[in-house]
Design goal:
about 425 residues; binds zinc ion; eight-stranded mixed β-sheet; alpha/beta; globular; binds (4S)-2,6-dioxohexahydropyrimidine-4-carboxylic acid; eight-stranded parallel β-sheet; 18 strands
Length: about 425
């Protein structure tokens, strides 16, 4: 297979190139390659996008999403690899569930799906899960996502065990006692709506704790979905003194603020909550200066029944796989914060490097995982068009730029936009 005339996003910039793919790998990159091929004129070709933080809900919550429907949403969103969080039912805290997820992903045969194992058994915060067995079964990281590990000593042990098995802990940072039932950011909009607020410190305290542990143990740690200006600063300072900390944020933290909650739309309910303009700008600056390494969607699909209830009772989460790329392109590249190569870093090379996955760059010898997008196309987010079972998006009706046209995994086209 040959791809012709694509604007290829390389590490150092964008070049018009042809790409020859052989046996699932990139065999040649050159200005002109002889032979018949797909004409990608006008399209920008990225290294296959990687979303290191998604929820696929299977096993247990198949009404919200399945591995198949989630993988379908992933390739539609341009993702060739995704990593799924363990807060399923049963929890992915053992090799059986990890093996099951991999088998279901193989059946779906869409994108590469990497399971993330739980840190503690049943995510109950009491005993460490079977970390070695999960690694052997294919887990690529460990996380207690949905909550933090409350006992600091247990978290320290988790970091030690994880490191022994070549894994990293991906930390959802939330001090539950301080959140104390808060459902939105504490500030003007929590006062206006009467919804219970949660302070930044609830996130920052655990970010600081994980940094302290990583520093004292000399081990790596990864901070999930950074949402506060103060957490960005904690991570920036830790990196400056050599702590092995990496971090991700999500499109909703750089594209929205808590002003979006004013209409009580439960699709704006997410954990951590949407913050204020000061935070949004700090998250953008963190992405720009490299404090924040990755953009992940935290794709958290929910059934309408879990969202069509009072704000206080609604489930936390945003269905993000099908809007992540366009929001990132629109808010970060079109606005001049990041170059296309830098965006490819945040959405492909950096997550690959942090988790030790293959891929992340367009180069000869690499797997032919590629994402082709029309960056000039403007479109309106319409959850009715989502292939994810989760239609819960606060971006509905919003105009964005950049549309995924093809997603190629190991040299095979797994998604091609159907023309109307
Ligand atoms: O909004 C969220 N949804 N935050 C989390 O931490 C968990 C996730 C979920 O599983 O729905
Ligand atoms: Zn989380
Ligand atoms: Zn999550």
């Amino acid at each position: 297979m040959i791809i012709k005339n694509a604007n290829v996003v390389l590490k150092g910039g964008v070049k018009k190139l042809d790409v020859r793919i052989e046996k699932g790998k990139i065999a040649e990159l050159a200005p002109q390659i002889e032979g018949m091929g797909y004409d990608f004129s006008g399209l920008t070709l990225f290294p296959g996008l990687i979303d290191m933080h998604v929820h696929l809900r299977e096993p247990g919550y198949e009404r919200k999403e399945t591995i198949e429907s989630g993988a379908r949403a992933a390739v539609k969103g341009g993702f060739t690899q995704i990593c799924c969080m363990p807060n399923t039912k049963p929890v992915a805290d053992n090799k059986v569930v990890v093996t099951y997820i991999k088998a279901r992903a193989r059946e779906a045969d869409l994108c590469k799906v990497h399971p993330i194992g739980a840190i503690t058994e049943g995510q109950n915060g009491e005993n460490l899960a079977a970390i070695g067995a999960m690694k052997e079964a294919g887990a690529v990281a460990l996380s207690e996502d949905g909550k933090s590990v409350v006992r600091t000593n247990l978290m320290a042990n988790a970091m030690r065990y994880a490191a022994d098995f070549g894994l990293k802990c991906l930390c959802h940072c939330e001090d539950k006692s301080l959140v104390d039932g808060g459902v939105v950011n504490e500030g003007y909009y929590s006062t206006l709506t009467g919804l219970k607020g949660s302070v930044r410190a609830a996130e920052d305290i655990i970010v600081a704790r994980e940094i302290c542990l990583a520093e004292s143990l000399g081990l790596p740690v990864h901070i999930c979905h950074v949402s506060t200006y103060s957490a960005v600063q904690l991570i920036r300072e830790a990196k400056a003194r050599g702590v092995k900390v990496t971090a991700e944020t999500c499109p909703h933290y750089f594209a929205l603020t808590d002003a979006a909650i004013a209409g009580f739309d439960t699709d704006t309910k997410v954990n951590p909550p949407l913050r204020e303009e000061r935070d949004r700008l700090a998250v953008i600056e963190g992405l720009r200066d490299g404090t924040l390494d990755c953009i992940a969607s935290d794709h958290a699909p929910h059934h309408a029944d879990d969202k069509n209830v009072e704000y206080d009772l609604a489930a936390f989460g945003i269905s993000g796989l099908e809007t992540s790329f366009a929001l990132s392109y629109t808010y970060l590249v079109k606005s001049g914060v990041l170059t296309l190569s830098e965006l490819a870093g945040k959405m492909s090379a950096n997550p690959a490097a942090i988790l030790g996955l293959t891929g992340g760059t367009v180069e000869v010898g690499a797997p032919a995982d590629l994402t082709a997008a029309d960056l000039g196309e403007e479109w309106t987010v319409d959850p009715a068009e989502f292939v994810s079972k989760g239609k819960n998006t606060p971006f509905k009706g919003m105009k964005v730029c950049g549309r995924v046209k093809y997603t190629v995994v190991d040299g095979k086209i797994k998604y091609e936009e159907k023309r109307a």
